[in-house]
Fold each of these.
Amino acid sequence: MHNGPARPRRTIDFPGLRIPPARYALPNPSQSLHLGEDTPDRLDEHFAGRLPLAALTAAEVEFLRDHFLQQLDVVRERSIAYFERHAPRRYATAAPDDRATTWAEHVTSAPHDAPSLLLLGPTGTGKTHFAYGALRAVAESGAQVTWKSFTSPDLFAHLRPVHGRDDEQALRDVAAVDLLVIDDLGAAKLSEWTEEVTFRIVNYRYEHCLPGIFTSNVPPKELASTVGGRVASRLTEMCQRITLKGDDLRKGARP
Ligand SMILES: Nc1ncnc2c1ncn2[C@@H]1O[C@H](COP(=O)(O)OP(=O)(O)OP(=O)(O)O)[C@@H](O)[C@H]1O
Ligand SMILES: [Mg+2]
């Protein structure tokens, strides 16, 4: 089969321009004409990967940066609005601590290289707060990272077979999202079906190197018997483990 000539790949040197990776629209050539007659061609060469950023003039680099920063502002506003619409009210103002901020930076700059997080600790130590703080940090970066967040019982309710729905697609939509939070792993009653669903989601993310946050108040030694050995094994490899300690913060709250 003949596919015709391959379309040139458009590349953007995100680190060089000091902007987070996103699906930006390229500038319209006419907008850069004031920089020089051959600027549109040079930018084209750059996006085709044949002319590095370092070979562009300072004015051309500045032009590109301005162009993408304008879009970044729009994307960032959209991401924050999405976060505020979808985060539960209690956690909508959760501020990320240094660990959550560092992790969010890793996720936005190199999503396939960032580890997932496994937040462990007894009830009320701030695991869900941490997870939403990290999601806020990702949203505020302006990077186009789509996310979904479920407690594990809600996840199973969401994925229960529904007559007339493409259940495989529903599972794929969860498994393949850029960033997935599964809160309270091990909180739902275990059955063959829940174990299978958890395995398929975790395994998909493991295989495709997709970042996520998993939380549980199950002690590490009991994780395998709670979520299944195959899930626990993958979580161990793909996650950076953070254990939150201390008292139940809810006990200090007003009566
Ligand atoms: N760093 C923090 N700063 C301010 N409030 C916090 C912080 N961490 C947690 N909290 C508050 O403490 C309470 C308990 O936190 P959270 O719900 O995150 O605990 P958890 O570890 O997820 O508990 P569980 O295992 O029962 O789900 C919440 O009201 C939360 O908003
Ligand atoms: Mg919680």
Amino acid sequence: MALQRICFRSELVPGSWKRIDEPPVAVFDVAGELYAIKDVCTHEYARLSDGEVDGETVVCPWHGACFSLSTGEALSPPAVDPVETFAVVVKDGDVYVDLD
Ligand code: FES
């Protein structure tokens, strides 16, 4: 297990996200549920956390591909490949993602 700290749990409220740049990972709070994805679109190199979130879907800010935050699946073109997802661990008030 390779845990990467992202933020304090208290910094995430429903509808918000936090990200780190190295590696590019974003954690989204959707109605209290946390989802972590690699924060790079599989079409080109947009940061997905710069896009709109609609429920459990994030929309790429560059060309509009939609991805599932829970599965990483590419739900609409022009992206075809899924985005990587990570398990989220909340421990002692901190949010981590498991990069393994
Ligand atoms: S970079 Fe995301 S859809 Fe093109």
